Amino acid sequence: MLVTSIIFAASFYQGTEVASKTLMPTPTPTPALTLNQTIEPVAVPELTPSHSNFTNFAYSTIGKYSSNFPIAETITLCNYTTPSHSGKIMKISIFLAGVSEVSHVKAVIFANEPNVNFPQGGEPVAQSFETFNVSSVSGQWYNFTMNYSASPNTVYWLGYYSDNLTYYFYDEGNSSITVTSQPKDGTSSWLPVGWAYQGKTTMSLDALYAYAKPGSAIIVNQTNSAIHQSTQSYWDAIFVLLIIGGETAILLPRQAQKKQYQQIKDLF
To answer: Is the pTM of this model over 0.85?
Structure first.
């Protein structure tokens, strides 16, 4: 009886060991190289809302009148209101006339001082990349490249600085005011500005405004969704196989134990 129990215990242990070793399913994952190739994300261009819409604001008409008594080394500005959506002022075009000695001109933008409805003093918030030589005595449009992020529906003062005599063109009206600074004193690159009122006139100045399409989504770099799903499905299948294998490894030894126990009962 003792021998029989020992033989049973030994055979039960071997059966359990064999079952746990041989009956556990072994998953065969996709080779690493193929897996890496599958996970590799597809490059998607990054689009921060693109400035895909353009509009113009300010005053694109060549005025009937030309300024009188221009003063050298001054800033001349006129106030305009930006469109109702955020964007960038990309270009300022001004209709100017010069003198035979040539004027060196830069376009500038000043913030508004709301309490007095005049430009804020000090340096401009933006200036053009180029300095143009204004020499046409009859007048022409000069296109200055800008890159200024402006607030929507906001008053800004746009205009130019000239180191020589430069005439601007304008029309009379109540929508805008034109101002001129005192002459530069030679001690600073820009002035702690005081402004001289020129009248309720609108300078011939056109501003190009770039803005994102309303409601457009921001697209950033991301993995391809179809590839991500296929990779996830692969690992889901492996996970299920491991669970089935674990349950099988537990279940089979129990079944073998029951069978051995039944055989012992039959002996008695």
So the answer is: no
